[in-house]
Each structure stands twice: as C-alpha cells, then as structure tokens.
Amino acid sequence: MKEAEQMQNLEGAGAGRSVSTQTGSVTGQMPRLSKVNLFTLLSLWMELFPTVEKKQKLQVKKTGLVVVKNMKIVGLHCSSEDLHAGQIALIRHGSKMKNCDLYFSRKPCSACLKMIVNAGVNRISYWPADPEISLLTEASNPLSTGDAKLDAKAVERLKSNSRAHVCVLLQPLVCYMMQFVEETSYKCDFIQRIAKTQPGFNSDFYFECKQERIKEYEMLFLVSNEEMHKQILMTIGLENLCENPYFSNLRQNMKDLILLLATVASSVPNFKHFGFYCSNPEQINEIHNQSLPQEIARHCMVQARLLAYRTEDHKTGVGAVIWAEGKSKTCDGTGAMYFIGCGYNAFPVGSEYADFPHMDDKQKDREIRKFRYIVHAEQNALTFRCQEIKPEERTMIFVTKCPCDECVPLIKGAGIKQIYAGDVDVGKKKADISYMRFEELEGVSKFTWQQNPTEAHILGLNESETIENGLKTPELVDEECHQNKKLCLGNH
Ligand SMILES: O=c1ccn([C@H]2C[C@H](O)[C@@H](COP(=O)(O)OP(=O)(O)OP(=O)(O)O)O2)c(=O)[nH]1
C-alpha cells in the first residue's frame, strides 16, 4: 500500500461519535483534535519529558511513545539513558501489548521493532522525520560507519515481513483548529492568571515564548533542509511521500502539529516565579519537599491541556491526566513516575451526538442542560485508568481547571495524593455545578497555578493586596479570568 494512502483518516474507527462533533464547521461548534493527532502530539511531547539523566548517545535520539489499546491510552513513555522507548514499553507491558497501537515520535530502530512486532502489536505509527537511529547525525559525520542506514534497511525488512501495520498517521487539522488553539491557549487560566497579576506583563511575552518554542520544536521535529528530509524519507521506506503534492502536504501537516504543540506548551509557561504551589501557607514547608519539580508539573499540565481539545462540551474543554511516583526509579525515561490514566469531559461512551442535551446554565429549562449527562475529565481518567492506584505511592492528578464538587470526593476516595490544577472557579456555586469543596478539601495536597508564595513574600507584595496564596486582588482576577476561559469560537 502506498504510504500516502496510509495517512488515512482513522477518526471513524476510534471516535465512536457522530461526525458533527469532529469538524466544528458543520454545526458551528468548536473544532476538535482527532485521536490520531492527539496521540501523535503526545508522543512528541513525551520526547520532551524533562529528564535529569545525562544526554543520550549522539546517534540514538530520545524518543517519545504512546501505547494505545482500544483507542485508550495505556502508556506514556520516553527513552532513558540505557533503554529505547520501544524496549521500555516491552518491559512495562509485555504480552499485554498484543493488539495495541503504538505512536512513536521517531521511527523505532530494529532492536525495538523486532520485539514489538513479536509481541503482536496491531499498528505502529511514527513521526516521519529523523528516525531513532539518527540518519541526520550520520550524514553530518565524516567518520560514520553506515550503521544508521543499515538499521533503516533492517527495519524495512522487519516491517514487510510483519503482521503489524507500520505507517505514518498524520491528519490535517480540522477547519479553525489552529485559530481555536491559539485563542484558547492565550485565554487559558494560566496565561490569564499571569496577565492579571503581573502589572508589567503583556502579550509580547507569550508570543515571544511561543516563537521560541516553535523554533526549538522545528529544529527537533522537522528536518529543516527539504532535500535532506526527502533523502531520509527515501531511506526509511517513504519514497512515495517524496513527490509533490504528498511531500508538501506532509511537511504542512507536520508544521501545523508542531505549531499546535508549541502553542499549547506556551500556555503553561516558565514565567518568573509562577508555577504550581500549595495555596495554604501553613503547609508550604511541609508539602514543599513533596511537590514535583515545576518543569515536570508544567509538562503534565500541558498533556492535560492537549487532552482538553478532545472535549465533547461545546463550551468548556477539560483535560486530566494521572501519574504516580513509584518507590524507586523505573526503567522509563520518566524516572520513578509512571502513567496511570487520562481523560477529557465527554458524554457517556457510545452515545451519539443528539442523545444528550448540550446547553449550559444560561438555558432556563434545566432539563435540557448538559450537566447531568457529561462525564468529567477526572471521572474519565479514573474510569479508564490502566493501573491501580497504590495507597503507599504518591499519585497525582493534573486537571486543566479546578475539580468540581462532584469530582473532589472521587479524587480523594481514589487515593490520589496531590492535585495540580487551575483555581479560577474555586469557591464558585453555579446553578448545576459548584466548586466549593476544593478549598475545604483536606488530606490531599493542592497545587494551584500562582506566583511562588515565598517569592511573593520576598518581593514584598503589599499584604492588603494579597490573598493567602500570594495573588493580588482576587475578585477582579477571578471575574476576568472567568470571562476569558470559555472554549468558544467567539467571532470565528
Ligand atoms: O471538575 C470538573 C469540572 C467540570 N468539568 C467539565 C464538565 C462540564 O463539561 C464543564 C463545566 O464547566 P463550567 O463549570 O465552566 O460550566 P459551563 O457551563 O461550561 O461554563 P460557565 O462557567 O459559563 O458556567 O466542565 C470537568 O470535566 N471537571
């Protein structure tokens, strides 16, 4: 089969939902990220997982991997110093990988592929740039031994003799998707919290940060020289994609996804003293030691933000991801952390678009409001988790908005120890949904996006202007953020 044909549309296979919710343009709803693109983006993002390990060997590129079973994510991995992503997946999932779909941020090497194929996986999709055993590094090394090319050949041989479908799955973004992601990323709670609490903050910071990310990710995930890219595609068996219009389409799809990733990544930025901190000053010292490094917390929150673009709620997209930290370091590039589950807010599995009401609480008739039907992001993450939550381990949930009163007891009851979240809705009581219990919640550590309270203290913020978590004039901030947080298309 031609590789160009392999960039098929898989949405129908996985979404279990009517088409109208996919496109946005048909019904005027917000656009939605396809599952294939979500998995691909998460694999790229896993390649960027902040690791404390020493650099990888030059020729072997760090690789991100998403393991999917029945269209549900069951593993998020990245290479470690000693092991490739595919090897790690094999160690962690073993024969449970049978019939799984794997999404790699680079074409895996033969050492990984032979084991994965042997485990009976269903499909292996990879990002079509420089493979795991770098051809780019080899091309620029005059002393090269030709091993990368040899490996690429072996991979092709394994591919053609295997039952698994080894292919490139990239889909063009649906209409308005990029605009929507740009708008909602800038207006998301995290950026708006900074904008409203930092007198000197202007949008330039956000856009500069985004430009930097785009450059950085293009360097990493795109082969800048088109001829070189074509050569790589030829070597890895994608010669059918080297002709136009396939080649230019492929590069455009890749650029769009990189731009989307950079945009979402910039929405949880490394800005001054902002991060996920404990709101209760009495607990700061006690809890501080147990909190995650900020860059890891930000990384997981970006995963949750990506998931939110799969929402089925017309207005408010929410994403949640659960990670645990084991007692000792695992073989994964994520250190002791391992993936438990993830989700986004959506109507019950298997329902069709018109089965349930979609209205919000502005609708007078309470019977046709969405709230009694939509399953929350945290609820889906808990329901479809692939690992048990162990009471002796530190399990944490990352949610793009404050967990509501329905979800708070579920999170606590499930044995989750830490919540990383936005707090824009905290203390709000709406007609059908309330956010009162989060503040009162005890026995679970809460880390919300704010300026480091210790730094705020050192910087000498006026006491009368601060609340306990170090934020200024909360009423104004909350109201404006509330206005901005909606995932609606606005004037598109
Ligand atoms: O912990 C939570 C809380 C809410 N949601 C989802 C459920 C629902 O799909 C949406 C509700 O969001 P919100 O409270 O913002 O209500 P809204 O009616 O969408 O917006 P508004 O703030 O204008 O009332 O968010 C979650 O997934 N997890």
TrEMBL record:
Entry EC no(s): 3.5.4.5
Annotated region described as Disordered, given as residue ranges: 1-27
GO cellular component, one term: nucleus
Domain CMP/dCMP-type deaminase: 44-143, 295-435
UniProt GO BP: DNA cytosine deamination
Polar residues biased stretches: 18-27
Tagged with keyword Metal-binding: yes
Gene Ontology molecular function, alphabetical: cytidine deaminase activity; dCMP deaminase activity; importin-alpha family protein binding; protein homodimerization activity; zinc ion binding
Catalyzed reactions per annotation: cytidine + H2O + H(+) = uridine + NH4(+); 2'-deoxycytidine + H2O + H(+) = 2'-deoxyuridine + NH4(+)
Keyword Hydrolase listed: yes
Cofactor(s) this protein requires: Zn(2+)
InterPro entries hit by this protein: APOBEC/CMP_deaminase_Zn-bd, CMP_dCMP_dom, Cytidine_deaminase-like, dCMP_deaminase-rel, Deoxycytidylate_deaminase_dom
Swiss-Prot/TrEMBL keywords: Hydrolase, Metal-binding, Repeat, Zinc
Family, similarity comment: Belongs to the cytidine and deoxycytidylate deaminase family.
Full protein name: Cytidine and dCMP deaminase domain-containing protein 1
